[in-house]
UniProtKB/TrEMBL annotation:
It comes from the Eukaryota. This is Cytosol aminopeptidase family protein. InterPro entries: Leucine_aapep/pepB, Peptidase_M17_C. CDD domains: Peptidase_M17. It comes from Musca domestica (House fly). Pfam families: Peptidase_M17.
Length: 507
């Protein structure tokens, strides 16, 4: 796969038949089993009632091959394709634990889930990811296995695997940035990583503190304490893909990249700071999406992205509650809680995207923010689910429902929330001299509509609220809160929701 080799966890090949695959273990996840195994499976079922509900490992004498069986459960109307992805991951986990290095995964067919082959391969690849620091520090452990073979009956097997590797390369990038500890993926190190990766895209990095203070003042406030430590200094990294043909639509994505979130002056107490290096998974997802764009090279889709990389440090220079800061759009924002830094670090970059969309008259622009933003999203949606919030223009295009349907079919489920007038009213300034109150003093999980309110804030502080359905320049805007889907420490980052976004907007 050429340049993808460094962005996939091992070599991957399509096998034509079991006997000539060169594998050292056969992994089966469905009850569509080779004829040579039918008698043995029936024998096991005769004395083991748990055979079709737990992972097992045994030797097939007829195939002269070890077998790992990770069964998919009986499917109800409410299961989705993640069932197959999880079974594939469990099968490989068991094979690795047993010491095998070259598994062959039998990819099932399914009338219930039309993308089962692609999703099953992706589920297997997700299990094989090795964190960037382990790969760099202990090269002997850079791979969990040497080779993955897949047997797919679909005549388009080669195309399915090729697509899986392109999508996985994006998830690989997102996981690298997301999983890196606060030093390995501090803002300057993310810049370094991105510059090496995206040589084919236009990369513009804003790091000068005076420029940030003047043009991205809300971001600069969050960056203030970190800026005193050179290796922690903030970066806004713009990436741009220009298609070979005239663009029919424009995607503009802004990602929250808080490399470590202490909470700032409103410090996270009670042991809840651990894991806050994952607060950059929104920007990580944006970077992963751009890797897919780079590989797919859509003919008529223009893509501009911004990674807002900043550390929310605490110290003598940190911003504090009660400060009034004027945003890039000229909105006076009073800080209510320094732990609401995510909306601060993205707002000015989002405003810049709005300006580009309007001034350059870009075709069919759609703006996005992607962020691990609120604990409320975790409580409201539950682990594994992203939340979509469309503004009025995107909602009129039925964007959220379409993205939700696509996400479900590719194993990245969404819940849809609606932004309402209440959310804008909540943010309205409370005293003379402030236009917007950045945050209240309760955790988002204890704040009614705690994940919708920040979406309204992002619209109000950037002027996007002036680009609704009845305006001279309506702009589609979607906020994705991925706090519940990005992957909670100590689990690996998931890279959600980049596959759904790629399928919805690049296909």
């Amino acid at each position: 796969m050429g340049g993808l080799d460094k962005l996939i966890p091992c070599t991957v090949q399509v096998a034509k038949m079991i006997q000539k695959s060169g594998c050292d273990v056969l992994c089966i996840i469905d009850r569509q089993i080779p004829s040579e195994l039918v008698e043995q499976f029936n024998e096991f079922r005769s004395f083991d009632k748990a055979f079709d509900s737990v992972v097992s490992c045994f030797k097939s004498q007829k195939l002269n091959l070890p077998v790992v069986y990770s069964p998919v459960p009986e499917l109800s109307d409410y299961h989705d394709v993640r069932t197959y992805q999880q079974a594939a991951a469990k099968s490989l986990h068991r094979a690795i634990k047993a010491g095998f290095k070259s598994p062959l995964l039998l990819i099932p067919e399914s009338k219930k889930f039309r993308n089962v082959e692609l999703c099953t391969v992706l589920g297997a690849l997700e299990e094989l990811y090795v964190p960037i620091q382990l790969r760099e520090d202990v090269p002997d452990k850079r791979q969990r296995i040497e080779n993955l073979s897949v047997l797919i009956s679909n005549p388009k097997a080669e195309e399915i695997v090729k697509e899986a590797l392109v999508l996985e390369s994006g998830r690989f990038v997102a996981r690298d940035i997301g999983v890196g500890d606060p030093e390995r993926m501090a803002p300057p190190r993310v810049e370094e990583y991105v510059n090496k990766l995206f040589d084919g895209l236009k990369v513009t990095v804003i790091s000068d503190v005076n420029t940030l203070t003047k043009e991205y003042p809300l971001f600069a406030a969050v960056n203030r304490a970190a800026n005193s430590v050179k290796r922690h200094q903030g970066r806004i990294i713009f990436l741009e893909y220009v298609p070979p043909q005239p663009a029919k639509k424009t995607l503009m994505l802004v990602g929250k990249g808080v490399t470590y979130d202490t909470g700032g002056a409103d410090i996270k107490a009670g042991g809840i700071m651990a894991g806050m290096s994952r607060d950059k998974c929104g920007a990580a997802a944006v970077a992963g999406f751009m890797q897919i764009v780079k590989e797919q090279k859509p003919a008529d889709v223009h893509v501009i992205a911004a990674l807002c990389m900043v550390r929310n440090s605490v110290g003598e220079e940190c911003y504090v509650s009660d400060e009034v800061i004027t945003s890039r759009a000229g909105v006076r924002v009073r800080v209510g809680n320094t732990d609401a830094e995510g909306r601060m670090c993205m707002a000015d970059a989002l405003c810049r995207m709005k300006e580009i969309a309007v001034s350059e008259n870009l075709p069919d622009p759609h703006l996005f923010t992607i962020a691990t933003l609120t604990g409320h999203a975790f409580v409201a949606a539950g682990e594994g689910y992203s939340i979509i919030m469309d503004n009025s223009v995107a909602r009129a295009a039925d964007h959220a429902r379409k993205l939700q349907d696509i996400g479900t079919s590719f194993g990245e489920p969404f819940e849809v929330s609606v932004i309402r007038q209440d959310d804008f009213d909540f943010n309205t300034g409370k005293v003379i001299g402030e236009d917007i109150l950045q945050c209240n003093n309760l955790p988002s999980s204890r704040t009614p509509r705690g994940h919708q309110v920040p979406a309204a804030f992002l619209m109000q502080t950037t002027g996007l609220d002036k680009h609704g359905l009845e305006s001279q320049k309506p702009l589609k805007y979607t906020h994705l809160d991925i706090a519940a889907s990005a992957g909670e420490h100590p689990k690996m980052p998931t890279a959600a929701p980049i596959i759904a976004l790629a399928k919805a907007h690049l296909s």
